[in-house]
Amino acid sequence: MSVLVYTENTNGSFKKSVYEVVSYAKAIADSLNTSLTAISIGDVEQSALTALGNYGASRVLNVSSDQLKQFVNQAYASVIAAAADQIGADLIVLSNSFSGKGLAPRVAAKVEAGLADGAVELPDVSSDNITVKKAAFSGKAFAITELTSAKKVIALNPNSFELRETGGNTTVETFQPDIPGNDLAAIIQDIVRTTDKVTLPDAEIVVSAGRGLKGPENWGMIEELADVLGAATACSKPVSDAGWRPHSEHVGQTGIAVSPNLYIAIGISGAIQHLAGVSASKTIVVINKDPEAPFFKVADYGIVGDAFDVVPRLTAAIKAYKG
Ligand code: FAD
C-alpha cells in the first residue's frame, strides 16, 4: 500500500496549499508506515518538483504533455487514477481547491473509492476504515466520515494543515499514461485573468466589506487596506447583488467559502449566511459601528467605530509599521 498526493500547479508553480496537502499526505503515510508519491500534471519547473521532497514526497511522477497544459477535469482525473493504479496506491490525497472539488469525485469514481472531501484534520487510520473529520453545511458543522471501501480519496480544505518540512529528497520520474480520447472532448484554450491581485480562495488575508460602506464609490479605502496587507478583497451578498462589487467577491453560504489566516470584516453585520463562508478563518477582525452587530460574537478582535474613520487610520498605521 502507498499514498498518492496530487500537486496542482498554478501557471507552473506550486502554491502554499500544495505544500500543505503534501505535508498532510506525508503525515498519513507515516502513520500507515508507507511511502508518499506525488503526481504533477502540466509544465512545472524541475526545481519545484524536487522541492516536494522537502515536504515528504519520496517520488514524483511528472506528467508533461501539450494536451494537459491547461486543467481538463476528466483527463486529469484519468491521469491521477492511472498513477494510483501504477503504484498500487490505496489512498489518494488532494486539495479541496476549486479544481480539487471537481477532481476528487471523478478520481474516486474512476478508482471506485470512498471519498471524504473538505477534510480539516488528520484522519484516524488506526483501523482499515479511515475516519475523517470534514467540514459540512458550508463550514457550519463538522461530519465524521468513515471510509469503508478498499480505496479511499481525501480532499483537504486549504489552510487546514500546517506545513511540515522533512528535509527529504525526491526522485522525479516521467509518467506518460494513455489519455482516453473522450477525456479531451473539451479543451480549455486560454485562461484570461481579470485581476492581477491574489484570488479569494488562495488568499491568506481577506479584507471584506458590506453594506455599511454605503456605496461602490467608497471601496477605494478597502482596496488600499488590502493592497498594504497583500490581501484579496471580498464582500457580502447584498453588495454584489447591488453591483457594487463583482459576484466573484461574494463570500458566504451562497458565495465563496474562505479560510484565510486573517479575515477583516468591515461594515458587515455578520448574518448567519455570511458567517457560513468565513467561519473557518483562523483570525477574524470586525470593524462595525454597532456594538450589537452579530459579527462581534465570532470575532477574535473587534473595533467598534465608523469604518470611514477607522479604515484609513488602520491603513496609515500599517504603512508606517512597514516603513
Ligand atoms: P447589513 O445587514 O445591512 O449590515 C451592514 C452593517 O454595517 C451593519 O452591521 C451596520 O452596523 C454596519 N455599518 C453601517 N455603517 C457603518 C459604518 N459607517 N462603519 C462601520 N459599520 C457600519 N449574505 C452574505 O453575505 N453571503 C451569503 O452567501 C448570503 N447568502 C444568503 C442566502 C440566503 C438564502 C439568504 C436568505 C440570505 C443570504 N445572505 C447572504 C444575506 C444575509 O442574510 C444578509 O442579509 C447579508 O449578509 C447582510 O449584508 P451586510 O452585512 O453587508 O449588510
From TrEMBL:
Manner of cofactor binding, per the entry note: Binds 1 FAD per dimer.
Record key words, sorted: Electron transport, FAD, Flavoprotein, Transport
GO MF entry, a single one: electron transfer activity
GO biological process terms on file: fatty acid beta-oxidation using acyl-CoA dehydrogenase
Cofactor(s) required, per the database record: FAD
Transmembrane parts of this sequence: none
Ranges where the Electron transfer flavoprotein alpha/beta-subunit N-terminal domain occurs: 3-191
InterPro entries: DHS-like_NAD/FAD-binding_dom, ETF_a/b_N, ETF_a/FixB, ETF_asu_C, Rossmann-like_a/b/a_fold
SMART domains, per database record: ETF (SM00893)
Chain positions recorded as FAD binding sites: 211, 267-274, 288
Cytoplasm is among the record's keywords: no
Record-linked Pfam families: ETF (PF01012), ETF_alpha (PF00766)
Family of this protein: Belongs to the ETF alpha-subunit/FixB family.
Descriptive protein name: Electron transfer flavoprotein alpha subunit apoprotein
